[in-house]
């Protein structure tokens, strides 16, 4: 089963070959070259990009080259029928700007103008971008650095990089549209991120908001509105594969063995029910629950848990951790996106990371900055290497994917992979590295099990967060960096001071020596909320491109300037203070769907 694009087909990339419309010589001489450019881009993108269900990304090429408005309209009609979610215009020559451009303001578009001399593709690029800017329909310009000969049909490396960056972010925009966020419960412990903001989902992401009360879980459990066969399968798998860890609670606070067994069973049922709530389940219709069988078309959800639920029932950690992982009793599969504490803003950030990379995400509290001095004072140890400027402790009960153990590998290095590259052996390793520890009953009176693991060091990762400001709207922040290993004794000492039953990641951001990235402390000090989402890889540049498409300004990042790729209009808001220019551009264009 796929939990991915739920209703409607996967968005395709529309390729628009534009051409000089002059017949009797000019157009005829360019037809083949222009169409070949379109074919090369389509082939390149399909070969290099996949949707999060593992299928190759599909491209649709306009039936003819586009020499004027009639052919532009024909391409538009074709694209609408084919669920095109983003477009790339390609040309080796001069064409007529406003007559050939893509006028759809709600769909990301880019223009690749061939850098040649025989015909002026770059002149068209500049002209059509000026038209885009003048009309308020921002477009991304792609202009290769080195001149190519007209008979050279290759896509240069710098153009490839921009095509991929644009396509990944554009597909993310398109994948989000028309899906929903399912809020399970309400506001958790006064966390502002769980005050679901409909305007943000609707205007910026094109999504709708769905809500259930947590009593829906009780109803479905008590009335057995779930697939009992799946429960049996899941229970067997959990008993076989999930290692129960030690109980940290004092003797009088421990739950009995019978209670723990009940908690585990309830946790498994909560997991199955959350999937059903999000994406529906045809089995429920067979059981007589047609309405429940439909689900909520939810690409992401959040579980309030604390406190009304967890004061009485087992916590949501097992459900969140398993669903966010790339595997469960049904095998290796795409992760679901489930935020703990119903932090919808972190769910959005997780969706960005997941859709850009197709990998599982780690949801975490940005818990503590440990300076080298504080570590020395507490442990007697002087940190060095990557940790020499201190570390940030990422830790939260709940929603960290088990992929975050770092037990998948590539060339002997820890990685987090898209599900189709994960092996059965790696799944075993992730499970073996995780202990399911009886929940701390001072926090979670209703018991449950927390996933406990330590992320392997040496993974390039990016932490990010969408924050919401009254009067401004959403703002994105991100930090690229690495997971690090601390000496075992140091880890234990630091971890035991806090909640040792939860998953820990020691994170160090890449420093630039400047602004928010002056030092590790300043990164932590500038974080805008209690949570972040951690994604495998250095994906800051992809996040910046995506944010610009959605008109979400970025207040803090450590991506080098040459990798920043935003619509050409952004340059017109200033080229020196590009952070300020981003804010001005986003404010001018407003949210994508407003
Ligand atoms: C158990 C605690 O309530 C934690 O869940 C809490 O510290 C948080 O995670 C806050 O984001
Ligand atoms: Mn938290």
UniProtKB/TrEMBL annotation:
Protein name stated in the entry: L-fucose isomerase
HAMAP family recorded: Fucose_iso
GO molecular function: arabinose isomerase activity; L-fucose isomerase activity; manganese ion binding
Cofactor(s) annotated in UniProt: Mn(2+)
GO cellular component, one term: cytoplasm
E.C. designation(s): 5.3.1.25
Role summary: Converts the aldose L-fucose into the corresponding ketose L-fuculose.
Major location category of this protein: cytoplasm
Gene3D superfamilies: 3.40.50.1070, L-fucose Isomerase, Chain A, domain 2 (3.40.275.10), L-fucose/L-arabinose isomerase, C-terminal (3.20.14.10)
